[in-house]
Amino acid sequence: MVGPPKKHFLPLLLLVSLFAIFFFSHYHSSVPITPLIPNVNPNFIPINDLNKNLSPQNTPTFTFLIKVLAFNRLDSLSRCLQSLANANYDGDIVHLHVYIDHFPFVNDSSNVLDQKLEDSQRMLEFVDGFLWNFGNKVVHYRTGNVGLQAQWLEAWWPSSNDEFAFVVEDDLEVSPLFYKFVKAVIVNYYYNVSSSSPSIYGVSLQRPRFVPGKHGNKLHLDTGRELFLYQLVGTWGQILFPKPWKEFRLWYDKCKAKGIKPFLDGMVTTGWYKRMGERIWTPWFIKFIHYSGYFNIYTNLGHERALSVSHRDAGVNYGKTVGPDSQLVDESSFDYNLLEMQPLSNLKWYDFCFREVVPGRVVRGVDDLGSVLQSVQKLQTVLLVSIFGTSETITRNLLCHFERLNIQNYIIMGPHSDFLYDLARRGHPVIDANNLLDNMRAQKLIRFQGSKSELADILVKAYMIKKCLEYEYNSWTIDANMLFVSNDFFHEFIINKSKECIAGKSSEIFFVRSSSSVRKIWTDVFLNKVATAAVQAPLPTENKNFVFLVTKLLEQNGVGITWVDETSFGMKISINSVIQSILGAWKIVYWSMEIGLDLVQRQLEEMGMWALDGDSSCKAVICHQSS
Ligand SMILES: *[C@@H]1O[C@H](CO)[C@@H](O)[C@H](O)[C@H]1NC(C)=O
Ligand SMILES: *[C@@H]1O[C@H](CO)[C@@H](O)[C@H](O)[C@H]1NC(C)=O
Ligand SMILES: *[C@@H]1O[C@H](CO)[C@@H](O)[C@H](O)[C@H]1NC(C)=O
């Protein structure tokens, strides 16, 4: 493909060798997760109402564009276009756009120059003579060398939300089945409102090969799962969906204009960017996908088979021809119907670590709780995090720390908001506390008059602990005004302290051990006592806090409570606190809800506990061994 002059050949060879080196790291997927029962669009917000009941067939503006990126390899291009022309397009109109990059103007001898000019001319003559019967053929011949990044990025600006682009580098060859497959994916996962997701940015036809968060290690797939979602972009046969691509282009503009680089710690692609800079485009796209929490659809056809293959021909990316990476499939390759697709809710989703992500876990009502609790618990323990009264960035920062510490058994509970639902879309389990409280009242689990939405925090916490006790889970409850420095915090407390409940003296840390004695006390009656106490608690609000209210009620019932002093193991941020950058001795960092979030952020930055970058996504992708 398109790329740098010969003297910069080495870095590209390094990239090639990354593809070639296989580290056999066996991936074990996480504890089996109880699948959520699919009901009407349980997991995903529809793309937009305009798409209701539309399909390519009855959407007049449905358009499929093939964007071929070519440079100076006539034989490759010829094979590529031939395979595209041999595909089955079902009688649909499909347009072909060919982008031919120019050779770079370097100080060549006149012989070499004449040869290059002649090659270019032959290339254009071939493309001009190439018969394309399925739609328009448009040729874009560059006046200068733009390179791979601009070839990709400038290939497309979608003219509607019904326009799809298939970007094909010239050393690819596609299966004759590719279009029928892609169309089936679009019908099933884009136009079907009850089986679509705004998180999907496209479809990759290549065989998935590596895990970018794990040094580019080879990806190991179980057989028997035909389709799955994975965050990584595939450059050997990528179909792009219009909306995410537009968002990407705008995001890229913003980063370029502001001098922001696509650095994402922990990703092998960041190393590529550092070596190759603007000659490649994938680090930018990958950074955008990490920021936006989007996913790509992949096939797992087994036996190293795929719907598109790269011949990895000699050229700029490869010093000599490496040959195809996979085998192309055709109609005869399958003893099942590849075009019959499962509902989206049956597919698995994977992040840049190839760790399973479960999007769409939202607790809105009492009946949603069981499956979500079971899916998040680890070692029979659940961590409930209230984000009432905190900002989005503080919550995001907390979630980056959970990723760093490999804490997976959390549920975020907060007020009804787009932010909360966006967290769920990205795979964080959430509780919509306002909806859940309404549902608790509708089901007469809790009785009190008036709309006390400010009590949602307390009442939902009390209810969640009750449910955890019913499932025999230990529960930790915290507010989002703290960060853990390491993840041994919980274990130590549970091991050291013998009483059934642990409560923080000055924060909302609260632990309830699963035991039959507490289960007997924490009943619906108890829940209503909490509600009554919360309603009656006098202002100011500090007397309305959860730990204050429930510990009083528990003590009245003779439950033993161990009080812990946060100042003995935590570092408190306050206006005049002296920042200690050595956090080793501390287990947590915490702050009062009253202090300004700017101050919190500044101090966390000084401590090295601010894990967000400029666009409020985590600075790093952190993969763990057995996750
Ligand atoms: C190109 O090469 C010629 C002869 O080697 C030299 O005189 C000329 O300055 C070079 N031009 C550039 C732009 O490097
Ligand atoms: C849309 O998806 C749902 C859920 O997977 C499925 O039951 C339904 O048949 C699909 N509708 C169409 C028109 O394919
Ligand atoms: C738990 O016990 C260990 C050993 O007795 C002690 O070093 C540690 O500080 C205790 N942790 C807490 C949080 O009390």
UniProtKB/TrEMBL annotation:
Q: What is the lineage of its organism?
A: Eukaryota, Viridiplantae, Streptophyta, Embryophyta, Tracheophyta
> CDD domains under this entry?
Glyco_tranf_GTA_type (cd00761)
Q: Which PANTHER family match?
A: OSJNBA0004B13.7 PROTEIN
Q: Would you tell me the protein name for this molecule?
A: Uncharacterized protein
Q: Keyword DNA damage: yes or no? A: no
Name the source's superkingdom.
Eukaryota
Keywords assigned by UniProt, alphabetized = Signal
Record's SUPFAM superfamilies? Nucleotide-diphospho-sugar transferases (SSF53448)
Extract the signal peptide range. 1-30
Q: Which organism is it from?
A: Jatropha curcas
